[in-house]
Amino acid sequence: MTTHLTQHSPIDTTSAEALNRDCFCRTLNSERLREQLERDPTLQGMMATLQDTRPNLFSSTVVFISLATHQQIVAAVNAIERVVALPSYQNQALARADGVAQRDHGPLGVCMGYDFHLSASGPQLIEINTNAGGLLLNVALASAQEACCDELQWVFPSGVRRETLRQTVVDMFRQEWQLQRGAAALRSVVIVDETPSEQYLAPEFELFRQLFTQHGIRAQVAAPSELLWDQGQLLHHGQPADLVYNRLTDFHLSDPAHLSLRLAYESGGAVVTPHPRAHALFADKRNLIALCQPELLASWGVPEQDRAVLAACVPTTRLVTPELAPQLWAQRRQLFFKPVAGYGAKAAYRGDKLTRRVWDEILQGDFVAQALVAPSGRSIEVDGIQADLKFDIRAYTYQGQVQLLAARMYSGQTTNFRTQGGGFAPVICVPGTLQTCPGDA
From the centroid of its chain, how far is CA 309? Predict the structure, then answer.
């Protein structure tokens, strides 16, 4: 969800930068968040568990962006989706992928995540993720906000909008099912991750389970070892698994422990989403190299308008090779290095923090070097003390449509959920200029 401040506001509007700097308002209603998280009796106690085990999952405030920034993010997502649909783009992306990624059974991939840093020239795409976590957590969080003052009461969404978001999530999974199975009924979903109870976002698995169950779909959370491929059917504890919501970070399902799931995907015996093909087409970091080359895009028939959008929002990205190593080392302070199949900022390095030992490891691996784009800042109060945090913006999408924008606030080199006062935060768009935050008085 993205809440928009419009010119019809009864208060003066303000720049997003000024609000992020000067507004210290707390907008999270913790009791409302508890109600959102514990909508089903089986989820009672989740809020207390989160506060105890994940105290920095949710921020108590919001992040502001300009309406222009929101429009640029939408334009970037739309342009990339059109490029990815081109045969020339797909041929080069799939040529370097595992053979399993050649399979196309129809589904597009749920819970896509486009991550942006905001710069003076507009949003900059940092990476694309095919199994971006946090969608339902952020739906609940957005539904638990309240105005920091009477002047902003109109900004926060209605209950109708909140329920629409949850229905949108269910519709997304049903659409994936229909793309592969047509009019057949979706009866069961298995949410799969390695040792799911130990995952940081494990509570979200339970939110998905409850949401599917609420809509008449049998749903379970499982480890891949609980799945069995038997005579053309994927089974979970002896019951057919119609659709697998795949949260594994083994993006090509190459681990022998994931063989049943791989066989089910290859054969089309179960609907698997997101899947290896989506990762190869979107999330492999080498795709960013193509997206920032206007001449190459032009040769594939990408329209001038889309090329302009991508030139403005995709930072220059290059493959780390022995030939480029001396140049990249010399320029390292302006670069960020990422493994081509990385996720969650694992093994990602700011160039100005590199040691020679780490640099040698990068040269031995498959890495890209991306022009460094510093994250924007958000000032908050933590225990009465001002703290200056960083944030990025994640656009959750499906079929090229932005469903919800959420921010992740943090301190340190990369996003994390260890920063006091940080974590997921809703996004509010503002179009104008004002000198003070309406909630400061």
Answer: 20
Q: What is the total residue count of the chain?
A: 441
- Give the residue among 391, 432, 441, 425 at the shortest CA–CA distance from 27: 425
Query: What are φ and ψ of residue 65, in 5° steps?
Result: -135, 160
Amino acid sitting at position 72: Q
Round to whole Å and give the CA distance between 411 and 414: 8
Last residue of a domain, one of 371, 388, 403: 371
**Interaxial angle between packed helices 135-142 and 30-37, expressed in degrees from 0 to 180 and rounded to the nearest 10:** 140
Among residues 342, 339, 413, 336, which one has the least CA distance to residue 371? Answer: 336
Which of helix, strand or coil describes residue 104? coil
CA distance 219 to 217: 6
Residue 66 has which token pair? 């300009």
CA distance 424 to 135: 10
Contact between 235 and 241 under an 8 Å Cβ cutoff? The reply is yes
Show the tokens assigned to 361: 């490891």
How many domains are contained in the chain? Answer: 2
pLDDT tens digits, residue range 46-96? 999 999 999 999 999 999 999 999 999 999 999 999 999 999 999 999 999
Domain assignment of residue 320, given as a range:
316-371
How many other C-beta atoms are found inside a 10 Å radius of the C-beta of residue 317?
23
